[in-house]
Design goal:
Layout (H helix, E strand, L loop, with lengths): L3 E5 L12 H13 L4 E4 L11 H15 L5 E4 L5 H13 L4 E5 L8 H14 L4 E5 L1 H4 L5 H7 L5 E6 L4 H10 L6 E4 L2 H9 L4 E4 L6 H12 L3 H17 L7 H9 L19 H10 L6
Helix pairs in contact: 1-2, 3-4, 4-6, 8-9, 8-10, 9-10, 10-12, 11-12
Main location: cytoplasm
Protein name: 4-hydroxy-tetrahydrodipicolinate synthase
Keywords: Amino-acid biosynthesis, Cytoplasm, Diaminopimelate biosynthesis, Lyase, Lysine biosynthesis, Schiff base
Length: about 290
């Protein structure tokens, strides 16, 4: 089971929107040096919805090759067409990823039975462990706990990234799956500390892009049940969690990476560069988190 701080990796781009492959490799090395426990390549933060299929494949392959087995790599392989999600999962297998993160099909608005059949089909077509990804704020569809419990019985479905931020709901699922080996990850940085202290296994994090060591340390403290230490680190990170949601992800985090010298000022339409009025807020949050000097 993969545990701890899993970064939802941003994809560095040049000013014109072209993928910056050298910067992507450097960003991976940055995470390896600063304690990140695993990497999600081409997840939501990585902007796969504006990539060609070939670019999507190449981002996954480049991250896998750069990591070279030092930590697990989870490939973002979600799609709103089941056939496409299957193809992406199969490609992730071919290039040596350690798992797949498969988001609820967006836009189509499937029923709970449709979600069950979609994920079951992806799992049956792949040799890799599948982590479900529920983010109703983006997909307009919600994977209910009851459906997750059904899917937890499917071979190859090994976990869930829950980005609802609903701790009561998360705690219910944690309790029901406590005696299983099904992994539960927070997908909401502001509530991730409490999620883990309640028994969650980790966080798939946006904030870890710019504060990998602090996120790793917070997860380690929470995993060991060190409530005071986990809360102390999390309190320092809360302004960052908030600031990185000030505009749609990954707009603020890509601006932050640029300010840290880790990426050029590149993002793809329809997303735009961080609005000038929000830059002081994000800059101050980086300073409070201790990842950038004044």
């Amino acid at each position: 089971m993969i545990t701890g701080s899993i970064v939802a990796l941003a994809t560095p781009m040049k000013a014109g929107g072209e993928i910056d492959w050298d910067a992507l490799r450097r960003l991976v090395e940055f995470h390896l040096e600063h304690g990140t426990d695993a990497i999600v390549a081409a997840g939501t933060t990585g902007e796969p919805t504006t990539m060609s299929v070939e670019e999507h494949f190449d981002v996954i392959r480049t991250v896998v090759e750069t990591v070279g087995g030092r930590i697990p790599v989870i490939a973002g392989t979600g799609a709103n067409a089941t056939s496409e999600a299957v193809a992406l999962a199969r490609y992730a297998t071919d290039v040596g990823a350690d798992g797949c993160l498969s988001v609820c099909p967006y836009y189509n608005k499937p029923t709970q039975e449709g979600l069950y059949q979609h994920f079951k089909a992806v799992a049956e077509a792949s040799d890799l462990p599948i982590i479900l990804y529920n983010v109703p704020g983006r997909t307009s569809v919600d994977l209910y706990n009851e459906t997750t419990l059904r899917l937890a019985e499917v071979d190859n479905i090994v976990g869930l990234k829950d980005a609802t931020g609903n701790l009561e709901r998360a705690e219910d699922l944690i309790e029901q799956l406590r005696d299983s080996d099904f992994a539960l990850y927070s997908g909401d940085d502001p509530t991730a500390c409490e999620f883990m202290l309640a028994g969650g296994h980790g966080v798939i994090s946006v904030s870890a892009n710019v504060a990998p060591k602090a996120m790793h340390d917070m997860c380690e403290a929470a995993r060991r049940g060190e409530f005071e230490m986990a809360h102390q680190i999390n309190t320092r990170l809360m302004p960052l969690h908030s600031a990185l949601g000030i505009e749609a992800n990954p707009i603020p985090v890509k601006w932050a990476l640029n300010q840290m010298g880790l990426a050029a000022p590149g993002i793809r339409l329809p997303l735009t560069w961080l609005s000038e009025k929000y830059r002081p807020t994000v800059g101050e949050a980086l300073q409070l988190a201790g990842v950038m000097n004044t």
